[in-house]
Amino acid sequence: MMIRINLLPVRQVQKREQGRQFIVLMVGMFIITAAANGYWYVWMDGKREAAQRRLDDTNARIAQLEKVIGEVTNLQRRKKEVEEKLAVLAKLTKQRAGPVKLLDALATAIPKKVWLSSFEEKGGAAVMVGTAESFDDVSEFMRGLNNIAWSPKGMGRVVERMRNGSFKIELLNADAEILEIAPQELGFFFSNIELRSTNTEAAATKTGAKPVKFDMTLTVNLGI
What we know:
There is one protein chain. The protein has a domain at about 95-220: General secretion pathway protein M, EpsM (Gyrase A, domain 2, 2-Layer Sandwich). It is rod-shaped, with a radius of gyration of 50 Å. The strands form 2 sheets. It has a 5-stranded antiparallel beta sheet with strand order 6-5-4-3-7. A 4-stranded antiparallel beta sheet has the order 1-2-9-8, covered by helices on one side. The protein is built from 2 helices and 9 strands. It has helices at about 10-110, 135-145, and strands spanning about 115-120, 125-130, 150, 155-160, 165-170, 180, 185-190, 190-200, 210-220.
């Protein structure tokens, strides 16, 4: 007699066990996926917040720099205004001191044997009338006018014009120092000196020479 064994319950148990394992696996995968998604979201949110903080910091620095730039621009504008005012004051000061220096330069340039009878200046153009003992004295006067200059160390007389373009001047002070000065550092009081006319007077001096009356024009620099 053959014994028959019913394996159906065992198979059903195995199927149920496999079903539970599958469910557990799916639940585990879901949990892992959810955890991974949660971690990714938290990580991305952290990066977003960090990026936002950096953006906020950058905007704050930009605002601060714009404020500094505005202050610098305001300072530059105020500096320009002050420089313009100082330039006007310097110009007015030169205009006030110019005639004094001009008269000093004129007195320095006049030789002993030359006398001025009139000096008229308008807009930088001047006319002089005077008398000299000789034509040589008139020439010496013109050379003297042409050589009187103002240097950074005061008034001087040009004694030599160098080949390199600079000038040797003798300072008209107690030391009579001789300096070599670049042309851009010198300001000449007189230019465009022209002798318009000369007349020999009839009456002779004690030396027998006849005085020369002269009339000359020149340009004066009042801005020194």
